[in-house]
Amino acid sequence: MQFSKYFHLENTVQTKPYQHIATLLCFFCLGFSTAAWAPLIPFAQQRLHLNHADFGGLLLCGGLGSMIAMPATGLIIQKLGCKAVIAMLLSVLLVVLPILTLAPSAQMMAIALFVFGSAAGGLGVAINLQAVIVEKNLSRNMMSSFHGMASLGGLLGVMFVTLLLALGCQPVLSAMVISGLMIALCCFAVPQSLNRTETGDQSVDSNVKNKKWTLPKPLILVFGVMCFIGFLSEGSAMDWSGIYLIDQFNIDHAYAGLAYTCFAIAMTIGRFAGQSIQRYLGEKNTIVYGALLAMTGLMTVVFSPIWIGALVGYLMMGLGCSNIVPLIFSQVGRQNVMPQATALSYVSTIAYSGVLVGPAMIGFCGEYFGLTKVFIAIAAMILLIPLLNAWIAKKASC
């Protein structure tokens, strides 16, 4: 198969020692810091005396910040390089996290959430670009393990903050502990990140180096749609799996979190095993079989007569979804129709809207049609991933 039309595979300069470790740590920090906020949310709602609807609208400020920051980050990276952007955004995250536990008014919380979301969204673009470059320089398929570190960071972030709160720590102290740990990780991760020259030389292919900021090409939009579906599936598990178990199986609220726990554990394991899976199946088949497994898992959730069966379905779904988005990001890094930084910022914006906007869409549709029908619709959307991937492969071989 020839990839000359849409993908470039040329060699690049050798990655410096520890840059791949630094990239792993950057992904870990992103997952760790953003997930650490989740257990602190109820305390913020209680402090501000807001109902669910008002506080839900407030949380959208974080999503709005991410959606605005991601397209701009690619352009900034081309000017400053990954290292400067990563250093700035990690600093913002570790400073703003404690502020989220102290904001005295809804207005201040809205500003803090907007800044926090902007930093998280921009950091996602920056570290994915760095991951693409490091992966290319090492000639190894490492994107799944990079995203696996974000998943691991998320799991540990939630567990660690929950433990601190259970031990009686105040929310602000818990947030400051998280920020302190991030400072220690940043002391190694930031100095080893790609500087402006390394980023600029490798993030822009010679065929597109002189192109200015443009609207996304059709190929980039297809990548974005595929990632959107992947993140929408993840968002459905994260925000609605517990509610689904309670509604359908009437289980105790204390056990509702097991659904997403199963999904998250399976996704983390699948991503760390991603390199081995890809070597065995190949990139195309890993995406195809992953999508089929995710679809089968979600249908198992829908049609299972017992809640244990639904947990098995979420295990299958997490494993199936685990490598889809990382491999698509790798493909975005190899395309040559747009500069990598610009392409990744567009794909990230479309993709992360699946997590930021998707759960709200699920709730709205679920109110009118029921979660069961919505989950079936998401399963049908997952089937679009192998079809779109086949279209990309066909175009690339022409």
From TrEMBL:
Keywords: Membrane, Transmembrane, Transmembrane helix. It is found in: Membrane. InterPro entries: MFS, MFS_dom, MFS_trans_sf, MFS_Transporter. Residues 19-397 form the Major facilitator superfamily (MFS) profile domain. It comes from the Bacteria. It is a multi-pass membrane protein. GO terms for molecular function: transmembrane transporter activity. It holds the Pfam family MFS_1. GO terms for cellular component: membrane. The chain crosses the membrane at residues 21-43, 55-77, 84-103, 109-134, 146-167, 173-194, 215-233, 253-274, 286-308, 314-332, 344-362, 374-393. This is MFS transporter.
